[in-house]
Design brief:
3 helices; globular; 138 residues; alpha+beta; 5 strands; GNAT_dom; five-stranded mixed beta sheet; Aminopeptidase; N-acetyltransferase domain-containing protein
């Protein structure tokens, strides 16, 4: 926005891993997140989207999500996915308005000392016409 940083996004292609680490070998709090990431194989995963508080509510969130969808298409993907915690209702509403739907859920396993609760939700959006859901492929 006129040379001013108002937020950022980060995402990447989720590779089709040949030999994924078994979930039971991972720390318990990572298991639901890694398990959902495995469902998103072949997708472009929007790992983070953030806006400075003073720039929220001005239409920049949907613009950042649209930019992420563009990046996914430019990388050759037909699907984009993200993970969000169920208590984050504002983010879920934003992603839903941008055309994302819930694909799968996993119970959140909080780190010791964390007060996180709820579920991790894998949301996704098909970027190509005529297909939907996580089975659509890259």
């Amino acid at each position: 926005m006129q040379g001013q940083t108002i937020g950022a996004l980060f995402g990447f292609s989720v590779a089709d891993a040949d030999d994924p680490t078994p979930l039971d070998e991972l720390p318990a709090p990572l298991r639901p997140v890694i398990d959902l990431e495995s469902v998103a194989r072949g997708c472009w995963l929007l790992q983070a989207v953030a806006l400075f508080p003073e720039h929220r509510g001005q239409g920049h969130g949907p613009a950042l999500v649209a930019r992420a969808c563009q990046a996914a298409r430019e990388a050759g993907h037909r699907r984009i996915a993200l993970q969000v915690e169920s208590p984050n209702t504002g983010a879920i509403a934003l992603y839903s308005r941008c055309g994302f739907t819930a694909w799968q859920r996993r119970v959140d396993v909080p780190f010791p000392g964390s007060d996180d609760e709820g579920d991790w939700i894998l949301m996704g959006k098909d970027l190509s016409p005529g297909t939907s859901g996580p089975a659509a492929g890259k």
